[in-house]
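Supplementary notes for students who missed Thursday's class. We covered one full example, reproduced here. Read the sequence, then the structure, then the short commentary at the end.
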Amino acid sequence: MGSTTKTLVLFNNTTLAGNVYNLTEGEAPEAIAYDASTGLSWVTSSATNAVAEVNGSNASGIRWVPAHYSPDGIAYDNTSGLLFLAETSSDNVTILNASTGAYEGSVKVGLEPWGVAYDWRTQQVYVSNHDNASVSVLNATSKSFVRNVTVGSAPEGVAYDPKAHAVVVANFDSDTIEFLNDSTYAIGPTDDLTGPSVILYNSANGLLYVATQNLSHSVTTVDAKSGTVEASIAGSEPATGLTYVPSAGAVYASDSGLDGDGTVQVLPNGASTVSTNISLGDYTYPSAAAYDNASGDVLVVEENAEFWAGYNVVEIDPATNVTVGTIGLQHLPIAEAYDPVHDLVYLYDGGTGDVYAINTTTDHVERSAFVGYSGVNGCPGTYVCQGIAYDAVHDAIYVDYYNYIAYGISIVNGSTFSVRTVSNGTDAFNASSGIAIDPADHEAFVADFDTASVTVIDTDTQEATTSIPVRSHPFGVVYDSGDDLVYVSNSENSTVSVIDPVSDTVLANITVGGMPVGETYDPDNGDVYVANAGVDNNLTILSGPGKDVVGNVNLHATGTPGEDAFDAANGTVEVTLEGTSSFPGDLSLVNTTNQSFAGLVPEGTISVGGGIVYATNVAESFVANYLPGTVSVVRLGGSPSPSYQVSFSETGLPPGTLWGVEFNGTPETSTSSSIGFAEPNGNYPFSVDAETGYTCNVTGGTLVVHNAPAHWSLVFTANTEATYQVSFSEMGLPPGTEWGIVFNGTPVSSTSSSLGFAEPNASYPFTVDPVAGYRPNVTSGVLTVANAPAHWSIVFSPTLFNVTFLETGLPVGTRWSVSFNGSTEASSSSAIVFLGADGKWAYTVPSSAGYLPSPGSGNVTVSGAAQTVPIRFAAPAPNGPPPSFLGLSGASGYELLGGIVGAAVALVALAVVLRRRPRGPPPDGIEAAPPSPGSP
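Structure (token representation):
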């Protein structure tokens, strides 16, 4: 029947064997890091949880590497060759090997990590935690957490300053920048700046460049060693990215502008004003910048959440300050046309705004031309309204584009690939869709989706000549060379308008199935085939002189029909069917000889109406897969693709029981324990037949065949009574974390986000297993099954909470400290914050500047919530005793000293009294001794 033999990946212009669909796209790029050892750069994509590796020297993509949750800031460690990614949604820093792309681990940091900086002197990584006013310090060698340091509110940008041996932190909400010592972690100088966000250290002049929200001079320079503000650069605007270019002796600042007019500003060393403004075009929103030493270019990442522009890395030559290349991060292939003159397939990419020329022999993109970006909405269902057609008479490619801001029809010269715009406008509701070329009458017909009309262009003059009214929302257009007629499908009117290209009038409107979208013409039998995307999901056949409806073919669609093409070698109409990332799309085949369904071919993932074109020179069809930015190459007939054994086995049924599965639309049954198929590479849906009195462990799924046999084990369990689906799901744990419950006395665990059972009516107790570092919202409960499926959601939260020590009594600016759970922090502000898990933790507070704390020590209990410990410092008495004496407190020491002195004075007085007492006569019988010499 046929198969997808190759897949062209547009991001890196490589061709992979077989049907490949589980690829990554680059939506919402945030930050960029440069790897000097390889000359390659890395760009984070927060919306698709991945990082792109790109080569600025030849303006090409290399590969996508999966991350975890919303990677934002990124830094490269040139010592270990590791990448450190701040992931805002998981509060983790993910570590990747820059050489292999392998995952090296994750480190838990603060809330919503934002910016990342690498300190090559101490081999430490610093991460700003936007939502809890702290900076996390990581050891880059051991890939471990060191400590958190409290900083100002909403820290964003961080940069390493080797001149001051400090990391500089931009606190957006506090309107300050702070210097954090990279050895002691003490906070040094603090400067007041309005909304600082991005920081760059310029090694050439030893200054820090800080992007702020001061609209009159948004980039400010700061002395890196003293921490004092130097100057503001006049004319600078709020920058989203800063990078230093040695060859230009200047800092390049990317700026989104207030109206979406993206620019890059050049700030020469020593200059007080902006020297050059480089425009990136209307509605471009740069988010980051880096200098590529290998190519000598400035790389600017464009981000646009409004779909007015693509997601790209733009290259700027600092010698000329003009853009010299673009690397597309997101590709959205939409429409295709075949060029038999050059044996090329032309593809319009709405993600990059380019028309690509694909060599049908090598299956690679040879050249491209920019024509305009595409929006993603505005057409029926999930379809995108862009058309493309090739004019062989004039060797020209016609393509229409539109988005929320502008629309137009561009003509690309097939030889020079230069672009000419025929018409354009700024009405967002003038979207165009399909295009057909009439070579006999030298006209191009363009369906204007939003105005219910068809624009006619003279292909000799390449100018619009007239507009033909048709029915509601015209979509597809095809030229019938046999009858010299043009057919236009009116998607929201369930009709096809027949146009006479000689008089440019509508001859008839033919009623077809619901929501006709795609059309193709079979020159062998003269029939026109219309793909209907409505409830019918079928293919309508228009035949005969009047092109009457002669039949409707069931497409056996697992998705909505989109575009169609005629395969001349096999006499087959191929219809694209919408799919998802979990259930890839198919091609539905219709035999034009007997006008019947001929099978399905798995290919790609089509999330919107995918374009398709048949290339006669290679007898292959090229299918545009809107997501994830690929082109599938499909071959019917000829040498079949290799097949592999596909098998299902069952256990649990009594011997000889008839059981069955439906595999890729084909039912099979057996009384043995296995059922087998032989299939080429692909993704095949299956369902398991229900067996009375038994429950199977699965009811269906998708089995993937990829260059090897594939197998699925089915386990049937006897039912004693009706059972219902019982499920538990978790939220909050990092992907791959094992969690579990004890359900009705049975322990079960998983590394995915859900657990499931089939149980009869009853009430079932359960307990939730502990997970280190996380707290579930419930630890136990009872789940009741009552004639319906039952579900319980378990939400895990980190078990670290803020413990805040709040002092009063100290003079403003007095430095004080707290030791908590083995860690000591000091501050000149009134609060010191630690992170503590549940438990009872000891703390001590030493005296400061003669002030005594109360309490000076104690315990704080953390139990599922943040805690605040008030510390009151008492001032020393005026001219009073020192705080300590003789090992005792000041007062007690001096009381002891007074007692000792008093006793000594009393003894001396007693001795004097005794010495001076008058002497009387000696007692009887004793003779008085004579006085000693010298006595009075």
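Commentary. The first strand starts at residue 2 and ends at 9. Confidence is low (pLDDT under 50) at residues 884-894, 903-936. If anything here is unclear, bring it to office hours.
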